[in-house]
Design goal:
Blueprint lengths: L4 E8 L13 E6 L13 E4 L2 E5 L3 E8 L9 E11 L3 E11 L3
Antiparallel strand pairs: 1-5, 2-4, 2-6, 3-5, 6-7
Length: about 100
């Protein structure tokens, strides 16, 4: 039986400020896929959606699902990727994951 873990995270776009004409501004987010250095873990983490847009002052949910590959024998895995927020400025955050494999 496959084990998997799913988590929803929320992010917001506070940096964008509507202009005085009332135009709605949006910012983009991108959660980078895992790099090839992680071997079989590359396909183990699925983000839905991996990228998108969010209006100023609003939040959006990103669903993360992790299914450990069968060939992994470690009981604890540590890996990371980048979350990029693009609005009036560009910010990058390193998202660190620690997975404890049960069973």
């Amino acid at each position: 039986a496959k084990q998997w873990y799913q988590r929803r995270v929320r992010g917001n776009c506070r940096q964008l400020k509507p202009d005085n004409k009332g135009a709605k501004l949006t910012g983009d987010f991108i959660l980078d896929p895992l790099k090839a250095d992680y071997g079989p873990l590359v396909k183990a983490l699925v983000a839905t959606p991996p990228k998108g847009a969010v209006e100023a002052g609003q939040t959006t949910a990103i669903s993360l699902q992790f299914t450990p590959p069968k060939e992994i024998t470690e009981k604890q895995l540590t890996f990371s990727t980048l979350l990029t927020l693009k609005g009036e400025t560009i910010e990058q955050y390193r998202v660190n994951f620690v997975a404890n494999i049960m069973g």
